Amino acid sequence: MSKNRGTKPKPVLMQGNAAVAFGALDAGMRFFGGYPITPSTEIAEILSAELPKYGGKFIQMEDELASMACILGASIAGMKSMTATSGPGFSLMQENLGYGMIAEIPCVVVNVQRGGPSTGLPTSPSQGDIMQARWGTHGDHPVIALYPDSVLECYELTIRAFNLAEKYRTPVILLMDEVLAHMRESVILPPKEKLKILNRIKPNVPPEWYKHYKNEPKYISPLASFGEGYRFHITGLAHDENGFPTQVPQEVEAMMDRLLKKITDNLDDIIQIEAFEMDDAEIAIFAAGVVARSAKEAIIKAREKGIKVGLIRPLTIWPFPDLDVEMMLENTKAVIVAEMNQGQLINEIKRVTKYGHHSKFIKLQKYSGLIITPDEILNKIAEVK
Amino acid sequence: MKNIPQKVIHQYLRHRKKFPHVWCPGCGNGIILGDLLRAIYNLGIEKDSIAMVSGIGCSSRMPVYVDFNTLHTTHGRAIAFATGIKLSKPEMNVIVITGDGDAAAIGGNHLIHAARRNIDLTIIIINNNIYGMTGGQCSPTTPLGRYASTAPYGSLEPNFDLCELARSAGASFVARTTAYHTTEAREIFEKAILKKGCSIVDVISQCPISYGKLNNFGSAVEMLKWQRDNTIPVEAASKLPPEKIKGKIIRGIIYDTDKPEFTEEYDKLITHLTGELSISKNKSVNKKVTGKAN
């Protein structure tokens, strides 16, 4: 499919899951390890057919613990790698996801969310894993998670997820809605030569000088691959800058600070947020993924009636866009937080506006397996008026 | 001549790593590491081409001390990480160091699936019949009736025979040795590394601190003597009537066959689809270096 994309981009009808698969291939991903799970399975199916054509490797592992583990192994051996799953599988990946974070191994984990907890609603949309993406693995850790709202954005944010993973040496999560994964849209993919693809920085020092967990430059050390002459150690234990286990308080603290600061010092680069009709908005809607699509439709209708309402949509959901949201909400009198769960984003909104003048938080929560419709959002807008 | 083995090991240790190691006095891990390093030396394999991957447990602390590409992963998942490395860089020699709890309990699923795929990994299970690092809990290889801190009345569960498990799951090379039989262990490790396919070696080791103490085995030396007296080479066992080998543990190369190896098969698929070779296939064994260790 993506191979017959000529210099003149033509529209193609594509599913969200397919856009993720082809975005990953265009980002240079050459290793996929996964386990079948609805509603993400198409990503694995497409890549099982495509990857060997690109000289890449696909493997269906015995479970999601192994899937997460093998993509980390492949990445440390030099291949850009990814897995795709849904809620139950995402739960099983959490321990090794944390390993990827402490060991600072780039990779991408796609979670096409479905209703939970447990087996829940395998074929229905939900945004119930927003907090799991943030805090699913144990211990303190920063997280980068992206959230697309269209098929084209599935493609774009998959590439961005790989770029951020490579740049910041960390696993990056792509959160998707089931509706988006299975929805087909006409998209025009950008020409390949216009894509911005980042690759991890490799060391340029002799092996004996190489420290793969050094604070420089900017908290991110260059990363050699196994087999390149830099014989180094990687562990999930707290480690010093040589990667050797340590319990020295100063060294542990330095490691933890580095893991945090490499993300928090680069928020401007990592965070993407969309403001739609927010310039004069008195009412703001905060929504991610497909809920934002319903919100846009509702906003257009409300604006026809003269209601000044706008949308704040995070493309980067973690780290949470604290400052942007706070600034955008400054001149609004109410914020409607629309989400397909029992209230995960609303607490973030309350947190970031805690010291502001804001008083009116309106929740619109749906966790029945159905998406939030434009009409439901319009009704909430009417409540504010 | 008598100093050669020591020097051999020394050249593979990490000098930036602060010693001493974490292992208790009398532990078999150091002996087995020595056997493995002599095997690597004898094969003349370059350090850069070796990835040593481990899980969690006493034996899984091994990679940090040696000068290879080393990955100390999560509990039970070493084989899954190693699968990613091997598929990504088939030219590397990927050696998994794991314990009985790591490989057969929490990581049992990965063990049997690596064997089924027949992926070219050398999986060395250091089997001390107990969870040493957490203080002596029973493992899937704790024999029926033996004591552990979580089996204070004796284990009610039969144990795995790891070689039978590995063979029936599809591994192409299956062997058992002990910490006592160092020369045999080295030779088996050499064959396991050279084998194109999934090699699984069950190495019986001693944990005098936990397993030995709880089961009145005596000192580490007594436990090593137990390994000598209670095991029988597979060749000798095949000539004896069943009643003569009852209660004995069979050691040596239990199973050795040739069958399609996963990464090679995958590379054939790539060649078929693209008409070109992806990455070089051959294990980088430098035949020029052929020093004998002992």
Brief account:
Chain A is built from 13 helices and 15 strands. Chain A is α/β, with parallel strands linked by helices and 385 residues long.
Characterise the protein shown here:
The complex is a heterodimer of chains A (385) and B (294). Chain A has 385 residues and is an alpha/beta fold. Helix content of chain A is 37%, strand content 18%. Chain A contains 13 helices and 15 strands. In chain A, strands 3-2-4-5-7-6-13 form a seven-stranded mixed beta sheet, with helices on both faces. In chain A, strand 14, helix 12 and strand 15 form a beta-alpha-beta unit. Chain A starts with 11 loop residues before the first strand and ends with a helix. Chain B has one domain (4-274): Rossmann fold. In chain B, 37% of the residues lie in helices and 17% in strands. Chain B has eleven helices and ten strands. In chain B, helix 5 crosses helix 6. The longest helix of chain B has 15 residues, at 29-43. The termini of chain B are close together. Chain A binds chain B through residues 31, 33, 52-53, 55, 57, 59, 61-63, 65-67, 69-79, 81, 95-96, 99, 225-229, 231-237, 242, 244-245, and chain B through 14, 16-18, 47-49, 51, 53, 63-64, 67-74, 76-77, 80-89, 91-92, 109-110, 113, 266, 269-270, 273-274, 276, 278. Strand 9 (233-235) of chain A pairs parallel with strand 2 (69-72) of chain B, so a sheet runs across the interface.
